[in-house]
């Protein structure tokens, strides 16, 4: 459902500055107002989604984020994929995949892969739990909550767990005629994890979080 | 003046957003310079990524080294056109398209363009969204080279192109992030009396 509920600033020039919001993509100025349940506010000029609150989103996000954390950590230690060809077999875990670039300057690549598929998604989920728990349960925000939330937003494009999952599919097809491939438990955990991460990001309305952080601290 | 991170509006001249702590800038004057710097770095890293092999496969009978395009052609020969297409799209079409799109956005932000601003913003969002997906090739190499280690029967090792390709993807992501999409929209005030917000 798309409803533009942020009215344009020009219509109400005497609104206090706290109630204004600017579109982060095109700088159009609006009077921020919560849209009706299920609706969302969209920028009239560039169609960027400005506000999209969901009911009970906070508690759901925390629950899903905890699930993500458990899945990431357990997926690390179980075998991910195994392979069999002419009597030779090998199984690999996510950690093996990340550390497969071992020699010389390739180590850098190992660090990048490990960061993109394990460290950054994990750090992001922890930051989000840290920021949202006080908001949901009506405490005073924990120290540095704003910095934590900002960091979690800055890390967003660098968390690539879902891309890794599609990468697995491509890799599987590539070697399918070379050998037999089996899925380990970690593969299924990772599949669930990817879906959770995507749904979670969809639920998080950054504007609402900033607003509540601001209100709680006053 | 607006905060790009949390959309809070502040009076002109304030240096830091008191809500989220980001540095405030009406427009980043060096935005386009940063875009071009990362862009050039990305293009330079992309060249060796296509010349050097991405993977080297050793089997009982043969040892082959494949570049990105070579690998895709090989797979197509075996009849898996779908996979070949995914690889070509993810590692050739998307990176090249991204280079062109960012260059177009940066040039048109300065000179103006006949393409409507809304369409260009849309293009920017696509570039931002799709940029990360180019990493898929690096991940495929990582998975393959840790999985396919079957002593003499078959083993796969990463080649130097994996490294430069990853660099190229990272550089272009940084290039897209340094672009300030508000520059696209500044043109809507051109021609009228415009005060800098």
UniProtKB/TrEMBL annotation, chain A:
InterPro entries recorded: PqiA-like
For this UniProt record, give its keywords in alphabetical order, as a comma-separated list.
Membrane, Transmembrane, Transmembrane helix
Q: Which regions span the lipid bilayer?
A: 61-81, 108-137, 182-199
Q: Quote the Pfam families the UniProt record gives.
A: PqiA
What name appears for this protein in its UniProt entry? Paraquat-inducible protein A
Native organism: Roseivivax halotolerans
Q: What is the lineage of its organism?
A: Bacteria, Pseudomonadati, Pseudomonadota, Alphaproteobacteria, Rhodobacterales
Automatic annotation (TrEMBL), chain B:
Q: Name one GO cellular component term.
A: plasma membrane
**Could you tell me where this protein is found in the cell?**
Cell inner membrane
- Note whether Membrane occurs among the keywords: yes
Specify the domain of life of the species encoding this protein: Bacteria
One protein family per Pfam: PqiA
InterPro entries for this protein: PqiA-like (IPR007498), PqiA-PqiB_transport (IPR051800)
Keywords per UniProt: Cell inner membrane, Cell membrane, Membrane, Transmembrane, Transmembrane helix
Residues passing through the membrane, by range: 35-55, 83-108, 129-148, 160-179
Q: Decide whether keyword Cell inner membrane is in the record.
A: yes
Q: Could you identify this protein by its name?
A: Paraquat-inducible protein A
Q: Which organism is it from?
A: Roseivivax halotolerans
